[in-house]
Amino acid sequence: MAAIRLDKVSKTYPNGVQALKDIELEAAAGEWLALVGPSGCGKTTTLRVISGLESPSSGLVRIAGKDVTQLEPWKRDVSMVFQRPALFPTKSVRQNLLFGLSTPFAEGRAVEIARLLKIADLLDRYPAELSGGQQQRVALGRALVRNASICLLDEPFGQLDAPLRREFSKDLPLLRSRFPATIIIVTHDPAEALTLGDRVAVLRDGVLVQVDTPEQLRHQPRDTFVTEFLAR
Ligand code: ADP
Ligand code: MG
User: Fold this and answer.
1) Closest to 172 in 3D by CA, of 199, 133, 216, 202
2) Is residue 99 exposed (0-12), middle (13-18) or buried (19+ Cβ within 10 Å)?
3) Which residue has the higher pLDDT, 5 or 229?
4) What residues are in contact with ligand 1 under a 6 Å CB criterion?
5) If you measure from the C-alpha of residue 23 to the centroid of ligand 1, how many angstroms do you get, rounded to a whole number?
6) Contacts (Cβ under 8 Å, ≥6 apart) of 90
7) Beta strand 32-36 with 199-204: parallel, antiparallel or unpaired?
């Protein structure tokens, strides 16, 4: 049974923009699926539909086999990291990581995640005292502390400069062995998608062009759009 399944999902915004067209997409439990495509192709919309922040105009969203299309976001067992890290400015890193959690396990978990994300020495600082890269790590940490079975990352390196991006995308897979969540990671950078994804889904103008392993995409691109996009 797939952890996430989109069944013929389409999304037209009230202004008439058709952001998603008949998307058929599955992610297996524990899989890292990279969702890639040019700006405006519907990546963020896809994540928002999975998390429940948007409802599809048609089609079904399933999580662990269950139809959640009408279910409120907070009941979906999904956490999401937004394109721009949104931290509480008046709360410390520790308080940001633990916000809304009251289980006795959360604190220990937060410290462990902070260590993995290399922000353990920043727990008592405030967001304004962090670099952009550190803020991104805290935002990611907050999503992981929640321990949802699905974690959606919307261009988590988007605001970072090239060396920081490389460092972060190298660290991210280290989390895998410890946190078996199903991950969908959005990026507009093909190299990042091919590095991080078990499979890569290529979106173009709201249409899913190809979903395959990095190997298959490199050797059997479905069309010239895929070839040219991956070569960027
Ligand atoms: P991406 O994340 O790949 O850059 P988005 O999913 O944000 O793309 O957007 C897909 C398309 O939908 C774009 O044409 C964008 O302008 C449009 N769009 C996104 N959000 C809204 C919205 N809330 N209302 C109207 N149009 C939107
Ligand atoms: Mg986006």
Assistant:
1) 133
2) middle
3) 5
4) 13, 15, 17, 19, 37, 39-45
5) 15
6) 126
7) parallel
Furthest-apart CA pair in the chain: how many Å?
A: 53
Start-end of H helices in the chain: 43-51, 93-98, 104-116, 132-145, 162-171, 190-196, 214-219, 224-230
Nearest ligand, CA 203? 1
Residue 79 Cα to chain centre, angstroms: 9
pLDDT in tens, 43-86: 999 999 999 999 999 999 999 999 999 999 999 999 999 888 78
- The strand pairing partners of 183, in sequence order, are 32, 151
Task: Give the mean model confidence (pLDDT) for residues 167-175.
Answer: 81
CB atoms within 10 A of CB 33: 23
Which residue among 12, 36, 45 is best mutated to probe the pocket of ligand 1, counting the most ligand atoms within 8 A of its Cβ? 45
Around ion ligand 2, residues with a beta carbon closer than 5 Å are 43-44
DSSP single-letter state for residue 201: E
pLDDT digits (tens, 9 = 90+) for 7-16: 999 999 999 9
Q: Which domains does the chain have, with CATH numbers?
A: 4-230 (3.40.50.300)
